[in-house]
From TrEMBL:
<protein>
    <submittedName>
        <fullName>Purine-binding chemotaxis protein CheW</fullName>
    </submittedName>
</protein>
<dbReference type="InterPro" id="IPR036061">
    <property type="entry name" value="CheW-like_dom_sf"/>
</dbReference>
<dbReference type="InterPro" id="IPR039315">
    <property type="entry name" value="CheW"/>
</dbReference>
<dbReference type="GO" id="GO:0006935">
    <property type="term" value="P:chemotaxis"/>
</dbReference>
<dbReference type="GO" id="GO:0005829">
    <property type="term" value="C:cytosol"/>
</dbReference>
<dbReference type="InterPro" id="IPR002545">
    <property type="entry name" value="CheW-lke_dom"/>
</dbReference>
<feature type="domain" description="CheW-like">
    <location>
        <begin position="17"/>
        <end position="158"/>
    </location>
</feature>
<dbReference type="Pfam" id="PF01584">
    <property type="entry name" value="CheW"/>
</dbReference>
<dbReference type="GO" id="GO:0007165">
    <property type="term" value="P:signal transduction"/>
</dbReference>
Length: 159
């Protein structure tokens, strides 16, 4: 049986929509695909781990599990005003079978984005962030940077 290709009577395929969890780091908007986010923790206690790599802030006990907490400020090279030292908003993610928490300044909103609105990252990238940025979405007065979790975590855990 052969499939026929015809546009008569067919509708154009619906735009592919992806869902993202938004957050802020140093007053800049970022998002991760919702499929890699396990939960959002608006406030958590982080305990330092002596001798940990520079992007590892420490560990947190979440639902009876100890998870490493990674700092996105340094990884994304967006130092600046963010949280006060006693606030720890965490996005708990899973990458390569490992559960980790990402410390962010503020939890944002959920985004449903059509593929057409996602622009590719610029060809000139900041060293250390080039593979982590998967795209950008331009809104009227702001920019949302979409991140690739696996590339983001790989670079952190290698440093």
């Amino acid at each position: 049986m052969h499939a026929q290709s015809s546009s008569v009577g067919r509708q154009a395929p619906a735009s592919e929509i992806s869902r993202w969890v938004g957050f802020e780091v140093a007053q800049q908007a970022f998002a991760l695909r919702i499929g890699c986010v396990r939960e959002v923790v608006p406030e958590a206690s982080i305990d330092a781990v002596p001798g940990a790599p520079r992007f590892v802030l420490g560990v947190a006990a979440l639902r009876g599990r100890i998870v490493s907490v990674l700092d996105l400020h340094g990884r994304l090279q967006v130092e600046g005003q963010g949280l006060s030292g006693d606030q720890n908003c965490l996005i708990v993610v899973e990458s390569a079978g490992e559960v980790l928490a990402l410390r962010v300044d503020r939890i944002g909103q959920l985004y449903s984005l059509q593929r057409e609105v996602i622009k590719p990252p610029p060809t000139v990238a900041v060293p250390g962030t080039d593979n982590a940025v998967s795209g950008h979405v331009v809104f009227d007065d702001s920019l949302l940077t979409l991140l690739d979790l696996d590339a983001l975590v790989d670079a952190i855990t290698l440093n």
